[in-house]
Amino acid sequence: MTGPIDFATVFDRLPTPYMMLDRDLRYVAANQAYLSAVARPWESIAGVHVFEAFPAEGESRARLEESLLRARDSGKVDHLPLIPYAIERPDHLGGGFEDRIWSATHTPIPGPDGRTAYIVQHTQDVTAIQRLKEVAFGRGEMAMLQDDVLLRAGAAGAQNDDLRRLFMQAPSFMAVLRGPEHRFDLVNNAYTQLIGWRDVVGLPLREALPEVVEQGFVTLLDRVTATAEAFIGREIKIALQRKPDGPLEDRFLDFIYQPIIEPDGSVSGVLVEGSDVTDKVLAGEQQRLLLDELNHRVKNTLATVQAIARQTLRGALTPEAFARAFEARLLALSQTHNALTDSQWAGAGLRQILGQELAPYDPARIVMDGPDLNLPARVALSLGMVFHELATNAAKYGALSTETGRLLLTWREEPPGMLSFEWREAGGPPVSAPSRRGFGSRLIERSIGAELRGQVAIDYALEGLACRFTVSLDRVF
């Protein structure tokens, strides 16, 4: 069992830059990614006002301060899609100032009184990609695309050629939409792959990607164009037709709609940039499902242990007898858990479970006849306990308590998806029905009937006990 989570360590190891300010805009925390991005040690900025640590004047300083104060005073998240902000380089890196472009999100953290106590900044250095876009897009009209979706170099030099190729091959998807119809002016390879390799350059969005119209993306682009304000989307779900005449596929995207503002202040188009985070989103959903399933299994296991303890105590005459019986039953439960862990809880083989419970006994006296079926996890756990009780009873009172007794175990899957199993003992001492129902019989009936919703019958025949049951193998637990 692990100890409490060290959130300070988690914060410091996050791969993207984070820092935290108090209400007076003084540093109270920063992770290693942030310190690396600004090339500062924590000791140099701890407790320092953010604008003392990174002085600036003019519009950039004003925009950053306004965003921080909006987040603090409104209690709402505030975004700065793009902001140029020069960073002073330390002496060991040559000194001076370096022009950088950032994208920042400011999240207020309330204190006990409900007022904002801290502001968390998540920031990303987007200098390289912004400069790449300037080269790829130019200050005026876009170059047309060749048949292979590469930009024409035009009169640009060799460096521009290299940067444009880099733009086209960038891992994030990019596109430029122009005019009121949001006509595709440029797409890079990643964007083309995202939309199923459709040739969309020159087409309006409604014609190029008709499936997105009713999903609100045209309206969103209209708003960005009208307001000249960027939109940042996180894990936005979109249904795309990625194969000709194929069904719509759900994808999840992180993206930004950045207005392209001309020198006269008008918006001529929208730059689309983002990443397909479908795998990350689905992995997160799967992790949540696994945690829910783990929580469910732990509760079931604890309930089983509680029942085992209660029933074992009820039938034990001495503390020593209780300890022996209780430990043996817990070991049986543990062995089945180990088998399921080996398969990542995808199930366990019926012969494997039987082999674990019957390992202490002479295999020459045990006859097994049936296919090696894979048992779902819940079925394996329940049957592991059932087989343990039957084997323990056989060793104490039944066929395995003598030198001539045998176990005859037969099973089949009939009809498909249903396990029919018979545990029959022969050659042991004469059998008679017990005067009272013991823990073993109650556990067997509860495991088969209540937990697995199957049917069970125990026959105390004179020549040997027989236990027959049927359970479903198709049931999802």
Please describe what this structure looks like:
The chain is an alpha+beta fold and 477 residues long. The chain folds into 3 domains: 7-124, PAS domain (Beta-Lactamase, 2-Layer Sandwich); 129-276, PAS domain (Beta-Lactamase), CATH 3.30.450; 281-472, Heat Shock Protein 90, CATH 3.30.565.10. Helices cover 38% and strands 27% of the residues. The protein contains 14 helices and 19 strands. The protein has helices at residues 7-13, 32-38, 50-53, 59-74, 127-137, 158-168, 189-194, 205-208, 217-227, 278-315, 319-342, 350-358, 377-396, 439-451; strands spanning 18-22, 27-30, 78-84, 87-88, 97-98, 101-110, 116-125, 173-178, 183-187, 231-241, 248-261, 267-276, 348-349, 366-369, 374-375, 406-413, 418-426, 455-461, 464-472. Strands 2-1-7-6-3 form a 5-stranded antiparallel β-sheet. Strand 1 (18-22) and strand 2 (27-30) form a beta hairpin. It is elongated and about 100 Å long. The two termini are 24 Å apart. Residues 1-5 and 135-160 have low confidence and may be disordered.
